[in-house]
Amino acid sequence: MTKVVVSEVWKMYGKVPAVRDLSFSCESGEFLCVLGPSGCGKSSTLRMLAGLEHISAGEITFDGKRINELPPKDRDIAMVFENYALYPHKTVGDNMANALKLRGMPAAEIKTRVDRAAAMLQIGHLLDRRPMELSGGQKQRVAIGRAIVRSPKVFLFDEPIGHLDAKLRGHMRGELKRLQRELATTTIYVTHDQLEALSMADRIAVMNEGVLQQIGTPQDIYNHPANEWVASFVGEPPMNFLDAEVVTTGSETDLEVRCGALRVRLSDAHRHRLEGVRGGMRLGIRPEALQVAGAAPGADWTAGTIYAVEPLGGDTLVEVAFQGGRVLAKTGADFRGEMDAPIFVTVDSTKLHLFDASNGRALT
Amino acid sequence: MLQTLTTDFRTPRAAPSALNTAPSQRYYVYLLAPAILLLAAISLYPFFWLIYMSLHQVSMSPNQPDVWVGLANYAKLLSDKRYLEGWRLLVVYSVSCMILQVGLGLLLALVLNNSRWEKPLVTVFLMPMMMAPVIAGLVWFYLYNGTFGWYNWVLQSLGILSGTSILGSTSTAMIGIVVVDTWQWTPLITLIVLAGLKRVPQDQLEAHMVDGAGAVRNFFAIVLPNLYPFLLIAVLLRFMDNFRFIDAILRLTGGGPANSTKVLPVYLFEVSFTNFNLGYGAAIAFTLLVVTIVIGMVLVSAFTQPSLQQKH
Q1: Average pLDDT of chain A?
Q2: By CA distance, what is B201's nearest residue in A?
């Protein structure tokens, strides 16, 4: 059980900063996902934690002990690489035993540990094969097996299931989460796939362009994105963004957000957020916060036309064009509608996201 | 209105008895024929002519026919001390060259790999290789010269060499020719190993470091196994060259002094083209050829061993 603290860390490649002033901590036993698009500095961060990359500035500690100068072998970490990095000339068993052999563990103990890890991952029957004889999913299990035989202080995962097909990836998400809870080892997991981060992590650190954007629980990140960028990166289908205007209707406290024909009366809960904000801002609406109907059931509904319909089996995405904008709404599988047919749309005003138009920060 | 066509999955029947005929391949045989004929003329004909000569006493005069002697030339080989000594010297020569060149080449490649000066230095190191071997022999012949040779002077000034010259003494002449071959061909090994080093998978190195290995262990466990196929190519090339190329040796020592550098190919040259004993020379050449082919095949078969197949 180890607490990892990253404080004010920078990574420079020449004069180009890859990681800028990064600070976060990972509690002991926690599963932390670092989420971001490619080139956001998440892999550099992981490699600095592993000791494979020099830390340009700042400090990383494991349980309060500075590890900046320690070579990888002395950090007591285990890492699972994106392309598995198995040793092709060694059998699966030897691949898993390698780290233990290098540490001079007795052969009997090594065998016990390898067998236990292999049983856990259901790869016991593969121990005598070589990596080239394995499928992608099996290789990935061996790579994880190689990491867990060690019982290290910290697990580092670098997009370990990125190369698997969608079905196997879904399966492995559950398995990895279960495994991490069972082993209760501090885990830092890098991915660009928001689904992996949301489904597995205790907390998610979202990064963009080398800068930490937000750190929090998956619910926090999804429901209360810190800025427009996080809101746009997390969520599938992506959030709708509209340039909108806040206007008073009637009394000073009666606020309405307007974007063309779309008008949303703000609930009491949201009203305080807009204190002092008048005029232009950015409005974010998740597709599931929108409702559509063929005929207007009430006054709060905005008239528009169907731009496109995308049935996804389980539910249907409807793109609605209205005067002044276009939004994507998620609705039931039973939705029927033709392109260009009239449609009405309304927004659940408790699920609005409001962002400052000038800097993208969430208005809270 | 779109129409949807629903069909059941079709269960495949038994494979059809008659398959569509594939286009004829005979066409390609005709296209290849000229090349095969040319290859036969320039490669197979001399090979069989070599066997023919080795079984005859070959006459140098157009009026006298060759005399069939059967295996007499081969029988003579077994009692020819020069022939057997030629083999011993060839083994000493090529094994020394191989060890020095692979060792130095590997070391140089490791030092040069990813260094700031890699490109300019590799260019400089390649220069000896671009020289014709006979020219290299000539250059070193003067460098070794007992009267005005620079190396000779340095070694004598340091007291390493007494009155004799390097190529003039039976104890140092072999070292002399090994040094020249090493000087000229180490760059080739360096070049091949450098190419191999670029292919060593970085992620395996990193995984091994995380597993707990230091630099030395990393080299032996990851770098070297990944380099084996490249080293094998280098060894194969150099070994075949050492068995065939004698330009530099002929220029440097001509096999002397006192036959101390008369490796088998030099002896073969002497028998065939100095003494013009073509039948006997052909027998020597045939044995040399067979040994070269066998060793070459052993090395090539090592490529196909599963333990050397690195790529997934």
Answers
A1: 90
A2: A85
